[in-house]
Amino acid sequence: MVIKAYVLLKVSSGAEKDVCKKIADLDSVIDASIIYGEYDIIAKVSAQEITQLNELLDKIRSVPSVILTSTMIVAQEYKGKNIRGALNVQSQEKVKS
User: Fold this and answer.
1) Residue 19: how many CB atoms within 10 A of its CB?
2) pTM for this model (two decimals)
3) Strands ordered across the beta sheet of 66-73
4) pLDDT tens digit string along 34-70?
5) DSSP string covering the chain
6) CATH number of the domain that 43 lies in?
């Protein structure tokens, strides 16, 4: 069974871009994004089993400038019908305004 999770990271000020790139390059990381709020980065990850997830979290925590992580394992996932289409409609509406 595939385990998916979101990992929130707090990093040293000014290190967001560098850390995000390093995290995104790790195996099992689907994507990583710089965010605003209490945390600085969010990474979506996937693992075949919990031990693989633990190993990935150890790698993430060992990246220089990572201060704190918080992991949320996905219980159920729902996909939107057509997010790209929705974004295109919103963009077109802004142009018309």
Assistant:
1) 22
2) 0.82
3) 29-34, 41-47, 3-11, 66-73
4) 999 999 999 999 999 999 999 999 999 999 999 999 9
5) --EEEEEEEEE-TT-HHHHHHHHHTSTTEEEEEE--SS-SEEEEEEESSHHHHHHHHHHHHHSTTEEEEEEEE-S-----S-HHHHHHHHHHHHHH-
6) 3.30.70.920
- Residues 6 or more apart whose CB falls under 8 angstroms from that of 3 comprise 46, 47, 48, 49, 50, 52, 53, 73, 74
Domain count, the chain: 1
Q: Which residues of 45-56 are buried (b: 16+ CB within 10 A; e: fewer)?
A: bbbeeeeebeeb
Range of the domain at 92: 3-96
